[in-house]
Amino acid sequence: MGRIMLFAWICVAVVIVVLGLIRLAPVDPLDWNTQPEFTEDKTFRGGVFRVVRTGPDGLARFDQVASSAPRTNLLAGSVEDGLATYVTRTKFLGFPDYTTARQDGDLLKVYARLRFGRSDLGVNEARIADWLAEMESIPTLEVAPSN
Q1: pLDDT in tens, 3-37
Q2: What is the superkingdom listed in this entry's lineage (predicted)?
């Protein structure tokens, strides 16, 4: 019985260490605040690319939605920079997913991906679909015409 308890405690300790490494893993914003060039929607095992015609205020509206999402924080960039990256952590284990949004004229390009593992089980795709749908309810911001 003593060996079983020792084994159980070792397993618990290993799980705590692994979860601590995931939660406390160093993050270099320069590594994540980037986006590959893409021109159309794409879904892959670890995330999604989305291209949406939003008008010139798309990133500002996206920022409002992402900033108010649970367990989501701005990692790097800003609306003023035209590129912003957010980190969203899972509720229980704290696994990070990174979402980078870039304003490209009237297009908003969104790149959401996982950090650990091979598959996100569709979590990023669902999150981005929800955020983009929620963006539609935010009134379009007036852009002053240039003279």
Answers
A1: 888 898 999 988 888 877 777 778 888 888 888 88
A2: Bacteria
